[in-house]
């Protein structure tokens, strides 16, 4: 009986260690910036799909509300309180693009802060520059007195396609370099 309990305890410990390893290995890449904030790579996506969205469930719920009878939907509370911005234009509209979405948070409080990112470029292994064709951001604080964009995204149609790794460089509004990873 003691041998069975010992084996069960070892099996539970091994399963726990495997789960812990799996959770830790799926952490999102981060970069600590000079101002003490942390930049988080939320998602890299390729295709025609829209870039990373805050609370994707909210868009699905809005679709349902849009398809309800008017007398019912106008009596529901407003859920679309987000704001977005975007700039630039893809060189080949309708073509696939590489979308990179980033968030920024305060290291001490862990709270999301304005990404304050407006421009990005990719550098390949030879140092060649690939400039983002489009950029944008989104927030759930549109009516806030302080401008905030919790998610910044960049779209690249030109990027090093045959490389396993490349360097992403991000910049603030006046093209002041923020960091790279």
Helix content: 10-25%
Major beta sheet summary: 7 strands, antiparallel
Count the DSSP helices: 3
Average pLDDT number? 77
Which structural class do you get from the secondary structure elements?
alpha+beta
What is the N-to-C order of secondary-structure elements (H for helix, E for strand)? HEEHHEEEEEEEEE
* Overall body shape: extended
- The end-to-end distance, rounded to whole angstroms, is 53 Å
What's the alpha carbon Rg, rounded to whole Å? 21 Å
Quote the beta fraction: 25-35%
Number of strands: 11
Write a structural description.
- By secondary structure, the protein is of the alpha+beta class.
- Helix content is 22%, strand content 34%.
- It contains three helices and eleven strands, in the order αββααβββββββββ.
- The protein has helices at residues 2-25, 56-66, 70-73; strands at residues 30-32, 37-47, 83-88, 97-106, 112-113, 119-123, 129-131, 134-139, 151-156, 167-171, 177-180.
- The strands form two sheets. Strands 1, 2, 3, 4, 5, 8 and 9 form a seven-stranded antiparallel β-sheet that branches.
- A hairpin with a 5-residue loop joins strand 10 and strand 11 (177-180).
- The termini are far apart.
- The relative contact order is 0.18.
